[in-house]
Structure formats: structure tokens, C-alpha cells
UniProtKB/TrEMBL annotation:
Keywords: ATP-binding, Coiled coil, Kinase, Nucleotide-binding, Phosphoprotein, Transferase
SMART domains reported for this sequence: HWE_HK (SM00911), PAS (SM00091)
This protein's name: histidine kinase
Transmembrane segments: none
Domain of life: Bacteria
Annotated PROSITE patterns: PAS
Gene Ontology MF: a single term: protein histidine kinase activity
Residue ranges constituting the PAS domain according to the UniProt record: 52-122
Coiled-coil features, chain-numbered ranges: 5-32
Pfam family, one: PAS_4
SUPFAM superfamilies, alphabetized: ATPase domain of HSP90 chaperone/DNA topoisomerase II/histidine kinase, PYP-like sensor domain (PAS domain)
Catalytic activity: ATP + protein L-histidine = ADP + protein N-phospho-L-histidine
Organism whose genome encodes this protein: Sphingomonas ginkgonis
EC number per UniProt: 2.7.13.3
């Protein structure tokens, strides 16, 4: 009897011991004191990681990147200190909420999608933007299945790749910046905070013989700003841009070996990754030719206004004098019309090349060509290479028209034997122009003093050094005109010029 009781007591004690060990094991599992659980099976042993602080928790804590373990429902089992710092939340905060919600709306969607893919097997990776302790960050999240004692879960790692992305973006931005610099039609320089040129495009070489990088901006471009009264200099321009202000474009003058150039200069801040400006970017556009063209245009407009006023006054005078000397409306219409045509012909010639002016020969040929060939033996043109300003050209054009008209009607060009010579000779401060007719019908002085004669004698006004003379010789008309050398634009004859 004693033995069975002893055997029964021993069995009961063994059961109680095993139960105590099981309870201790469960307690250790609950409290995280067990690294792994090994279950022996018929075919093979299975090892389930249980996450003791001495094993994978210790390993996760040594990782510099964020790491977390989730259960099958996506609930947080463990999160290391690196991930807590990245998200800006403590372990308790994360434990009482869904980890997925801590990465922000956009990151939450991407993270849930990543976990769903991981649930179907395999390791998966995705980049997403999260809102962390230091603001928005770009992280690369890797998810892989993880066997836990109580079932399957997921191991997640969070690698902050923000700086890598910013470096790539900066590199891409620099590449794009170089491309923009190369394609710009203007000269462009980039200066650092100290005002030193760090980059420049090829257009800068039109202003500098050597390299510009490494030079101070005011040293490379000693600009004078037209409207600044000396208060703004190149260094001030760089400083204004560096402080965040945009300047210009404003006009400046650059004096170099090529002479004086007019530039339009603009400047603005060069912003880096931070809030402030890290330097300045300056554009320089050469508008020297454009400004010269504008000055020439203003000159031409002034000349045009002056010429129109003079022409209208002249037309009014021609009309009044012609009607006073006409016997009837038909005679007035004919005479006035021809004089306007002569005036228009001279203006047409002037319009063809205003800057060069007209020569005496241009005016004479325009009036004589309808009646006699320029190469004819009956016509002599000598010394007519002198160029005239516009006012003198208009006056002489009208005088030549009256002389030719009279010669065609009554003088040397009214028959086949008459001859005309038009010569000019420069002497001292004047140019004497002589119109001489020979071989035509005998000339008689006019019975009345008409407007044509008045125009010939007074057409040059008081600008000539001597008055015009008109001599009605029996053998032909002789007219002497005098033009001051100040009315000449240039002399095409080198000998005369000397």
C-alpha cells in the first residue's frame, strides 16, 4: 500500500513540476524573456522568434536605421529607438496607436500597400514620404515576413534617404543650371556670398579676354551705372542680390579694350537648400548697337519732322507764288503740278539713302534724264561729286527743275543743236555751281518776273555765301549758284578733299 501511494505521489509531483515549468515558460513568453521557442516535430524542428531583449531586440537596437516588428494585423510588436526618433514618437505612443497612421496620409497608403504585398510572400521595398520629427522626409521601407511565436508577422526597416534624394536633386538642378547658362543669349555669371564669380557661361568671353571664375565681380566688370549718380557700384549690385533683392535690368557702361559698351544688367538672389540666398546670379546684355540704333532713330525722326515742316512751308510758298503768276487755273494746275513732282522726286532720292546724302549729279540726272541722255555730247556734267545735306538738296533740286524746264521750253534743250553744261568747283569756303546754255534759240529777257525766276534766285535763301545770279545772255542762259561748304556732307573726290 505504501508503494502505490509513494508512486502516486511521485507522479503527481512530476505533473506539478511540469505544470510549473509550463507556467514559467508562458510567463517568460508574455514578458519577453524568451528569445525563441523550439518545437520538435516529426520531420523537423521549428524555431519561432519570440523577441527577447537579449536577442533580436538587442540586435534591432544596435541598428542605425529604423526597425519595427508588426503582427499579422499590422499591430506594432516592437519598435527600436532609431525609428522612434525618426517618427518623433515614443514607444508607448506607437504601441497605443497604429504605426501606419504615424507616417502621414500619403505614407500610410503606401505602407499598407507594401504590407499587403509582403503578406503574399517575399521581401518588398518601396520609397515613401513621411512626416517625421524633423519635417517631411523620404524613406525607403523594406518589409519581409517574420515568424513569431504566436503566428506570422512582418519585419520593417526604415532607411532615411532624404539627403541622398536632395543630393541627386541638387546635382540635377546644377546640370539644368549649366544647361540654362549655356543656352542663354545673355552673358550670365554666378557669384558666391563673397561676390566671387564661381560660374560663367561662354557669352561672358565677349567682355573678358581671360577666365572670369575666381575674380571678384566688380574686378571683372568695372561698371558705371548711368542713373545712380555714383551711389551704386558693381559690388553694391552683388550685395543687394545676395541679400534677397532682385535688381534691374538697369543700364550701365563698361569700358574695356573694345571701347565703351552699353549694357543692361540684372541681378537676383541664388537660393540654395536653406531659406537664405547663397549668392547671386547676374545677367549682362550688350545693347550698344541697340542704343546706337535708337539714337539714330531719334535723329531721323527729328530730321523727318524738320523736313516735313519745311516741305509744307515750301509747298505753300510755291502754291502762292505760282497762282500769282498764272493767267488761269489751267496754267496754275500745270505749273504747280510740275513743281510738286520735282519736289517729290528730290525727296524720293533723299529717302533712298538719307545718311549718305545726295550728290549734285544725282539731282541733275534726275531732272535732265527725261529730256536728254546723260552720255550725250550735248550735255556736260563735271565736278558734281559733292554731297549735300537734305535742305540744300531740296533747294537745288527745285532750282535745277526750273532751269531744265526753261531750257526745254525756250532754251538749249528746245532744239537739237543746243548744249547744256553743269559744273561745280570748290574754292575756299564755298562751292560754285554754274549752269550754262549754248546753241539754243536767241534768248530774250522775260517780259515779266515769274515765280520760276524768283525760285532760282532765292531758292538757296541766305545759306549761300553769295547770292545766285541769273544772266539771260543772247547765246544762252548763265546761272551761278553758291553753296557754303558747311552744306556738304562729304567729298567723294580725294583730290578735292585734300
Amino acid at each position: 500500500m505504501d508503494l502505490p501511494r509513494a508512486d502516486g505521489s511521485a507522479e503527481s509531483a512530476e505533473l506539478r513540476r511540469r505544470l510549473a515549468e509550463a507556467e514559467e515558460t508562458l510567463r517568460a513568453i508574455r514578458e519577453g524573456e524568451v528569445d525563441a521557442l523550439v518545437i520538435r516535430g516529426a520531420a523537423r524542428d521549428e524555431v519561432f522568434a519570440l523577441g527577447s531583449e537579449d536577442s533580436y531586440r538587442t540586435f534591432m537596437e544596435t541598428m542605425e536605421i529604423g526597425a519595427a516588428a508588426l503582427d499579422a494585423d499590422g499591430k506594432l510588436v516592437y519598435v527600436n529607438a532609431a525609428l522612434q526618433a525618426l517618427l518623433g514618437a515614443g514607444s508607448q505612443e506607437l504601441q497605443h496607436a497604429d504605426l501606419v497612421q504615424w507616417v502621414g496620409p500619403a505614407g500610410e497608403l503606401a505602407l499598407r500597400r507594401l504590407i499587403d504585398r509582403c503578406a503574399r510572400g517575399g521581401r518588398h521595398r518601396e520609397q515613401l514620404a513621411i512626416v517625421g520629427a524633423s519635417g517631411e522626409r523620404t524613406v525607403e521601407v523594406t518589409a519581409a515576413p517574420l515568424e513569431l511565436a504566436f503566428g506570422r508577422g512582418y519585419a520593417l526597416t526604415f532607411t532615411d534617404v532624404t539627403e541622398r534624394f536632395e543630393a541627386v536633386a541638387a546635382s540635377e538642378g546644377e546640370r539644368i543650371g549649366h544647361a540654362v547658362l549655356a543656352l542663354s543669349n545673355d552673358a550670365v555669371v554666378v557669384c558666391n556670398a563673397a561676390g566671387t564669380i564661381t560660374q560663367a557661361n561662354a557669352k561672358v568671353r565677349q567682355f573678358l579676354d581671360g577666365a572670369s571664375t575666381g575674380l571678384q565681380f566688380d574686378e571683372a566688370f568695372p561698371l558705371t551705372f548711368a542713373m545712380s549718380s555714383g551711389l551704386l557700384g558693381p559690388a553694391d549690385l552683388v550685395e543687394l542680390a545676395r541679400s534677397g533683392s532682385s535688381v534691374g535690368p538697369i543700364e550701365a557702361v563698361l569700358r574695356d579694350d573694345a571701347g565703351k559698351r552699353t549694357l543692361l544688367v540684372g541681378a537676383g538672389p541664388l537660393r540654395g537648400a536653406g531659406d537664405g540666398a547663397s549668392g547671386s546670379i547676374i545677367t549682362l546684355s550688350d545693347v550698344t548697337d541697340q542704343r546706337a540704333a535708337e539714337r539714330r532713330q531719334r535723329l531721323l525722326m527729328g530730321e523727318l519732322t524738320h523736313r516735313v515742316k519745311n516741305t509744307l512751308t515750301l509747298v505753300l510758298s510755291i502754291a502762292n507764288r505760282t497762282i500769282a503768276g498764272s493767267r488761269d487755273l489751267a496754267e496754275f494746275r500745270t505749273a504747280f503740278g510740275r513743281r510738286l513732282e520735282a519736289l517729290a522726286a528730290t525727296h524720293n532720292l533723299l529717302a533712298e539713302d538719307f545718311s549718305a546724302g545726295l550728290t549734285l549729279e544725282d539731282l541733275a540726272v534726275a531732272e535732265l534724264t527725261p529730256y536728254i541722255a546723260v552720255g550725250s555730247e550735248r550735255l556736260t556734267l563735271e565736278g558734281l561729286q559733292h554731297r549735300l545735306n537734305s535742305d540744300t538738296a531740296v533747294a537745288l533740286g527745285l532750282i535745277f527743275h526750273e532751269l531744265v524746264t526753261n531750257a526745254v521750253k525756250y532754251g538749249a534743250l528746245s532744239n537739237e543743236r543746243g548744249r547744256v553744261s553743269l559744273t561745280a568747283e570748290r574754292s575756299g569756303g564755298e562751292l560754285e555751281i554754274i549752269w550754262c546754255e549754248e546753241g539754243g534759240p536767241t534768248v530774250l529777257p522775260p517780259s515779266r518776273h515769274g515765280f520760276g525766276q524768283t525760285l532760282i534766285l532765292r531758292g538757296l535763301g541766305s545759306s549761300g555765301p553769295k547770292p545766285t545770279t541769273l544772266d539771260y545772255r543772247p547765246e544762252g542762259v548763265l546761272c551761278r549758284m553758291h553753296v557754303a561748304t558747311s552744306a556738304l556732307i562729304a567729298d567723294a573726290d580725294p583730290a578735292a578733299a585734300g
